[in-house]
């Protein structure tokens, strides 16, 4: 949602940017590297999930993963963790370079190809990201994560109907999966259907395994509908009281401006 972290990063990076980041969550492999706290085989052990770290903590995680990567650049858990940490720190080009090497080392690995697609999307190469994720999918044994990943990329390409078809295919395979429900909800944010977005995000937030970002995005959607006190309560379960208040105050001020939603889209388009 509107993340004001202890590293003093910007409180609110624009609602549309948050939507994009949320959709990218669905592009990971079988285990989301953003949630890794205990080191997978060969990977560093982290004290908390990457998505809960401050900027300073993320820089430390990047350095730790970087040292492990230098020692064993072909190790899958190390490479995936390093790329994810770099993305969380905003170093998308470097993350993509890591995943390019991982894809060379593991050319048939679905987790690696999905994470490579995520890195491509984060770096702005959506057509190649789509090609990579589709290449990882096998029609005779489809992977719900890859359906969700493909849907997230299509959403960013403005193909929301096709994206939602893929999310529902993913849910047919993995009913109630919170990351897919969240992607489906954020898809509706991109088309400004906030009630539908809230419905799916509430379902996602109520499922076992729902992470912090899902609940923060629910708070975002509630706040975008003008229910600021409720949004602050939801955000307060994930952020410090001060950060939750700051986020909602910023959102309230932003929405007070004329044509806010169109302005957000225009700014994001210019940035891209």
Outline the structure in words.
With 272 residues, this protein is mostly helical. The protein contains 14 helices and no strands. It has helices at 15-24, 55-71, 76-88, 92-105, 110-122, 126-136, 144-156, 160-173, 178-190, 194-205, 212-224, 228-236, 241-255, 260-271. Helix 1 runs antiparallel to helix 11, helix 7 (144-156) packs parallel to helix 9 and helix 10 (194-205) packs antiparallel against helix 11 (212-224). Mean pLDDT is 80; it is low at 1-14 and 28-40.
Tell me the total number of β-strands.
Answer: 0
Mind telling me the C-alpha Rg? Answer: 18 Å
Q: Report the major sheet.
A: none
Q: Give the integer mean of the pLDDT values.
A: 80
SSE-based structural type: mainly alpha
Low-confidence segments, ≥5 residues, pLDDT <50?
A: 1-14, 28-40
């Amino acid at each position: 949602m509107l993340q004001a972290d202890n590293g003093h990063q910007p409180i609110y990076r624009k609602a549309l940017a948050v939507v994009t980041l949320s959709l990218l969550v669905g592009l990971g492999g079988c285990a989301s590297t953003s949630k890794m706290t205990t080191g997978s085989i060969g990977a560093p052990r982290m004290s908390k999930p990457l998505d809960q770290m401050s900027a300073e903590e993320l820089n430390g995680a990047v350095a730790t993963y970087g040292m492990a990567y230098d020692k064993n650049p072909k190790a899958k858990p190390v490479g995936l963790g390093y790329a994810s940490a770099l993305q969380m720190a905003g170093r998308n080009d470097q993350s993509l370079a890591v995943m390019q090497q991982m894809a060379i080392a593991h050319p048939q690995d679905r987790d690696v190809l999905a994470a490579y697609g995520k890195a491509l999307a984060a770096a702005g190469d959506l057509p190649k990201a789509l090609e990579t994720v589709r290449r990882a999918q096998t029609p005779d044994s489809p992977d719900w994560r890859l359906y969700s990943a493909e849907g997230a990329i299509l959403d960013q390409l403005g193909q929301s109907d096709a994206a939602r078809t893929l999310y529902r295919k993913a849910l047919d395979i993995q009913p109630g999966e919170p990351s897919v429900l969240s992607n489906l909800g954020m898809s509706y944010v991109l088309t400004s259907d906030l009630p539908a977005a809230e419905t799916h995000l509430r379902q996602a937030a109520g499922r076992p395994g729902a992470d912090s970002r899902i609940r923060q995005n629910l708070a975002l959607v509630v706040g975008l509908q003008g229910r600021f006190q409720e949004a602050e309560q939801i955000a307060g379960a994930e952020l410090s009281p001060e950060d939750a208040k700051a986020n909602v105050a910023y959102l309230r001020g932003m929405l007070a401006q004329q044509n806010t939603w169109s302005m957000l889209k225009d700014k994001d388009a210019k940035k891209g």
